[in-house]
């Protein structure tokens, strides 16, 4: 977050399951569309926040399964745990405020008396969150009775029903909404209040996000009954909250457009994006476009045309070097030439490419370093390389690729097969 010295242009605070992530889309298309939009147009001056009900354990599992970007801030366990940056540094200040009228032992003791409640997995039981499954037909009665009993024991809790099955008990001051309010206050005190904030969700635990003042909200088209009911009863007349027509991340992109929060055309929705021009010279855009081209080339979705190869070669410095993650060095131009033989080699296969945390810095006037992680999914395997590209801006010629250097990313868990990694 420290990389932003001025207020972020946009802060997106999004739930994951069935909001950012569409579990009914094995191709992850709407998520990939969101990813390239974010890296193309927002990463450099905006903040991405994930706010999930998942514990850190299940959150990390999801990251391995789905092509999720790395957020700037991660809010987990239904707003009870806030962490910052790649290394996920916990916000201890937030945790301290959650102990007010909260006693884990008492919550466990009282809930143990309800046969309707089935305890969730051990990983989902957290210091300020106790979670169960409960049948839809019993949820309301159990919630009422449990609130009374816990109040009698001197506690002040919040009971949230989500997804037609999950029941979470949290301190009254916790929850996704309170965590967002805390974050906004903190950013404001640092002089970095976002110009716009968009909250995105699909289920009961997201409702609070839509009641934070001055925050835009989108309930994705596939939102759960309990959230739509909450909206009808509490926020029907708030023009800042919409029910999108599109599912999951598609609904988020739709909301960015409807609320006019900034660009909403994902590079993935542009078929001839090599032609797509942007007003400001931002080498980050080049990177997003190139790797999208690379995916389409190998999937055989772009024409096998010499014109493409020629145009790519024209944007490489003749003496440009590519350092492969194996350490081998070769010429950039030769690397592009070799792409010819890979046209369509992934046709009909599960093959996707995405870039994460694309950040460009101008080192000298007209010289840029762009650092990012490039990920590749082939079948069920994910591999990633930390990549640095050096560009120079040449009068009238646009950006020239000078050097590309890759090293295997630490998170890349799979066996590092150097030979099948092209770039
Ligand atoms: C996630 C959590 C679960 C919680 C649910 C609803 O699925 O893993 O513990 O009950 O979100 O908040
Ligand atoms: Mg959800």
TrEMBL record:
Catalyzes the final step of sucrose synthesis. GO terms for biological process: sucrose biosynthetic process. It comes from Raphanus sativus. The gene is LOC108847325. The lineage of its organism: Eukaryota, Viridiplantae, Streptophyta, Embryophyta, Tracheophyta. This is Sucrose-phosphatase. GO terms for molecular function: magnesium ion binding; sucrose-phosphate phosphatase activity. Keywords: Hydrolase, Magnesium. Residues 283-410 form the Sucrose-phosphatase C-terminal domain. Homodimer. Pathway: Glycan biosynthesis; sucrose biosynthesis; sucrose from D-fructose 6-phosphate and UDP-alpha-D-glucose: step 2/2. It is an enzyme of class 3 (hydrolase). Its EC number is 3.1.3.24. It catalyses: sucrose 6(F)-phosphate + H2O = sucrose + phosphate. Its cofactor is Mg(2+). Belongs to the sucrose phosphatase family. Transmembrane segments: none annotated. Residues 9-259 form the Sucrose phosphatase-like domain.
């Amino acid at each position: 977050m420290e990389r932003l010295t001025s207020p972020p242009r946009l802060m997106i605070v999004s739930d994951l399951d069935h909001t950012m992530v569409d579990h009914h889309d094995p191709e992850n298309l709407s998520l990939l569309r969101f990813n390239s939009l974010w890296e193309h147009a927002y990463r450099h001056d905006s903040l991405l926040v994930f706010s999930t009900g998942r514990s850190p354990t299940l959150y990390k599992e999801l990251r391995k399964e789905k092509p999720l970007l790395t957020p700037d801030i991660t809010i987990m366990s239904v707003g009870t745990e806030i962490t910052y940056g790649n290394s996920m540094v916990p916000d201890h200040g937030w945790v301290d405020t959650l102990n007010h009228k909260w006693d884990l032992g008492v919550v466990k003791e009282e809930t143990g008396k309800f046969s309707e409640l089935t305890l969730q997995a051990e990983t989902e039981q957290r210091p300020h969150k106790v979670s169960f499954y409960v049948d839809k037909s019993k949820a309301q009665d159990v919630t009422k009775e449990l609130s009374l009993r816990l109040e009698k024991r001197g506690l002040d809790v919040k009971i949230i029903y989500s997804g037609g099955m999950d029941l979470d008990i949290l301190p009254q001051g916790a929850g996704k909404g309170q965590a967002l309010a805390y974050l906004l206050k903190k950013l404001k005190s640092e002089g970095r209040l976002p110009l716009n904030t968009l909250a995105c969700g699909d289920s009961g635990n997201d409702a609070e996000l839509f009641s934070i003042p001055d925050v835009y909200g989108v309930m994705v088209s596939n939102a759960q009954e309990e959230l739509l009911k909450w909206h009808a009863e509490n926020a029907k007349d708030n023009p800042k909250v919409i029910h999108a027509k599109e599912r999951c991340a598609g609904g988020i992109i739709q909301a960015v457009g409807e609320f006019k929060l900034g660009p909403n055309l994902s590079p993935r929705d542009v078929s001839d994006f090599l032609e797509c021009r942007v007003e400001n010279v931002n080498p980050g855009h080049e990177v997003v476009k190139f790797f999208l081209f690379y995916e389409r080339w190998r999937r055989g979705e772009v024409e096998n045309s010499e014109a493409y190869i020629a145009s790519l070669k024209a944007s490489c410095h003749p003496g440009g070097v590519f350092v492969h993650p194996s350490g081998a060095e070769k010429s950039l131009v030769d690397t592009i030439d070799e792409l010819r033989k890979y046209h369509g080699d992934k046709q009909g296969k599960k093959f996707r490419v995405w870039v994460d945390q694309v950040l460009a810095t101008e080192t000298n006037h007209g010289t840029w370093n762009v650092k990012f992680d490039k990920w590749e999914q082939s079948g069920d395997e994910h591999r990633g390389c930390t990549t640095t590209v050096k560009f120079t801006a040449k009068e009238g010629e646009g950006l020239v690729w000078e050097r590309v250097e890759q090293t295997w990313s630490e998170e890349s868990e799979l066996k590092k097969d150097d030979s099948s990694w092209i770039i």
